[in-house]
Amino acid sequence: QVQLVESGGGLAQPGGSLRLSCAASGFSFSSFAMSWARQAPGKGLEWVSGVFADATNTYYADSVKGRFTISRDNTKNMLYLQMNSLKPEDTALYYCTKGVHSRSLEYDYWGQGTQVTVSS
Fold first, then answer.
1. Distance between CA 99 and CA 117 in Å, rounded?
2. Alpha-carbon distance 15 to 80, whole Å?
3. How sure is the predictor about 76, in pLDDT bands with cuts at 50, 70 and 90?
4. What is the residue-averaged pLDDT of the chain?
């Protein structure tokens, strides 16, 4: 079955950096687009960033553009999110999500999430 396991979250200071990782299994990772989404306390789920299956196209929400970088390693079935210049409003539970096909960021599975807290 599809499994997505996120890691790398934690506490960071404003202006700091974190790198999230997602280990994927149970499906042909290189055949599906992948995304990161987040949910802040008391708010709905927000899509953050996505990458097509072959990594040729990446997309970002306006709120993170220029600060976050999504990448993937299809040889290792891994998805990453490098987060720089973190802000308190980036505090959220971050989820790795699986797309419904190679070039769609609509998702059908997600992991348990990893908590990111940005605070001084």
1. 26
2. 19
3. very high
4. 97
